[in-house]
Amino acid sequence: MVEDAELQELLEFALELAHAAEPSILSRYRNPQVSQKPDGTEVTDADREGEAVMRELIGRRYPGHAVLGEEFGDAGPADAEWRWVLDPIDGTASFSLGIPLFGTLVGLLRHGTPVVGVVHLPAIGETLYAGRGLGCWFRLPDGPPVRVQVQPVAALSDAVVMGPSGLSSVPPDEREEHVRRLLPLLRRAAKFRFGGDCLQHVAVCRGLAHVAIDPVMHPWDIAALVPCVEEAGGVVATVDGRRDNVVFGGSFVSCCSERLLREMLDVVRYPLSGVRNGTGADGQRATDHE
């Protein structure tokens, strides 16, 4: 069993990692070098440099820990107790357009279970973070941390629902089908907004939104979010309703309550026939959540 003091130390280190990557990211903001990966999604020099900075710090502080990152893959012992899961820029599509709604994600798994999560929004200076059993906290620039909680509502007709920002990481021939599946949410929600990658899940944790859905995700997009949502009192699942091993589920839903999650999942009715929305046993996918 992990003591609270040990987990608190790891959470503080996760915050340190996110902030350490910030100079590499913001120095390239509004003028990044953008290239394409083999699958056609975007990557920038800031993505690579930000992850490299975090990996170096982990190697120095915790050399026995494993690392999984978007840009440089797996490293460290396959059977490591602790595995850091890194996404230097969640929202590369926004970053490359000069839109400030992107985040640095730092997650920590213990024996595969997400126990620490940090979502840092470097361009606007906001940070959401959580450790299992330690609560979920939100901090503005130069302000004290404030504990946050979800705000349940009775039904989808009362809910603020957020969806993915443009499905930029989904292959063009699959986008229409994903949008079609989301249309019932647009009709039934009290308010619907296409969000901004990790930012929409931050809104759920803060009680500003009630459901956020991302139909295509990688482990590095998800790992940091799970502890935050759960410690804020919310629930998580894949878009087809799976609750086990969500980090490697290939999609992600954050929700303020079990009741609303069940209603929402019944409305969207994933999985899609002929459309990728999951992962294999190794947790790998053919597309990226930019």
Judged by helices, strands and strand pairing, the structural class is alpha+beta
Q: How big is the Rg?
A: 18 Å
Distance between the termini: 35 Å
The tally of domains stands at 2
Low-confidence stretches: 273-290
Q: Please tally the helical runs, counting DSSP H or I stretches of 4 or more residues.
A: 8
CATH topology of the largest domain: Fructose-1,6-Bisphosphatase, Chain A, domain 1
The CATH superfamily of the largest domain is identified as Fructose-1,6-Bisphosphatase, subunit A, domain 1
What is the level 1 CATH name of the largest domain? Alpha Beta
CATH architecture term of the largest domain: 2-Layer Sandwich
- Placed side by side, the strands forming the largest sheet appear as 4-3-5-6-7-8-9-10
Order of helices and strands: HEEHEEEHEEEEEEHEHEHHEEH
User: Got a strand count?
Assistant: 15
For the biggest sheet, the summary is: 8 strands, mixed
Strand content: 15-25%
Helix percent reads: 25-40%
Describe the global form.
globular
Structural notes for this entry:
By secondary structure, the protein is α+β, with helices and mostly antiparallel strands. The chain folds into 2 domains: 4-147, Fructose-1,6-Bisphosphatase, Chain A, domain 1 (2-Layer Sandwich); 156-268, D-Maltodextrin-Binding Protein, domain 2 (3-Layer(aba) Sandwich), CATH 3.40.190. It is 32% helix and 24% strand. The chain is built from 8 helices and 15 strands. The protein has helices at residues 4-26, 45-61, 92-96, 172-188, 198-205, 219-222, 225-231, 258-268, and strands spanning 34-36, 42-44, 66-69, 73-75, 82-90, 103-110, 113-121, 126-131, 135-139, 146-147, 160-163, 191-194, 211-214, 235-237, 252-255. The strands form 3 sheets. The protein has an 8-stranded mixed sheet, sandwiched between helices. Strand 1 (34-36) and strand 2 form a beta hairpin. Helix 1 (4-26) packs antiparallel against helix 2. The termini are far apart.
